[in-house]
Amino acid sequence: MKAKFLIPLVIFIILVVFLAIGLNRDPHEVPSPLINKPAPAFEIAQLEQPNKIFSPASMKGQVWILNVWASWCVACREEHPVLVELAKSQIAPVIGLDYKDKREDALAMLSRQGNPYTLSAFDGNGRVGIDYGVYGVPETYIIDKAGVIRFKHIGPITTELLSQKIYPLVSELKKS
Predict the structure, then answer these.
(1) CA 176 – CA 174 distance, rounded (Å)
(2) 8 Å CB contact between 68 and 152
(3) What CA–CA distance (Å, rounded) separates 173 from 176?
(4) Which of 55, 117, 136, 151 is deepest in the core (most CB within 10 A)?
(5) What's the predicted TM-score (pTM) here?
(6) Do 86 and 162 form a contact (C-beta atoms < 8 A)?
(7) For residue 143, what pLDDT band results from cuts at 50, 70 and 90?
(8) Which range marks the domain in which residue 127 is found?
């Protein structure tokens, strides 16, 4: 008779432990299956010059940062001044990926708030974002000289993240 009550109690305790572990994790550090894998290839039009194409293959041989953003994204607007700071550091090219947006809205936002991007690619239908496993914008990737993703951050970049993770990692990757 005690075994009938003991089994559900043990299952309940196990579920509570898993819930507690999950609640204590940082949601910005969702593990990505793309880390240490080649960045997905694509060729899409640039945001500001739709007659020109951008492809990650054009970045081979240099460390670069891919920032997925959209004009409709409130967190992207929050992150924008930090991206401007990152661009001013000139530590690496910052490529934007305008995700599921309207071209005219994205251009208006960059015109109003400044353009931190070396260039932005226009992913109006979100297909490139799907290949990169985008959960939501903003997301930022650091890609090494060989075209391999070395870092992924979900959510807005902060000045602390720049100084503690992004700048050191980019500097280290540029040495190798």
Answers:
(1) 6
(2) no
(3) 5
(4) 117
(5) 0.83
(6) yes
(7) very high
(8) 30-175
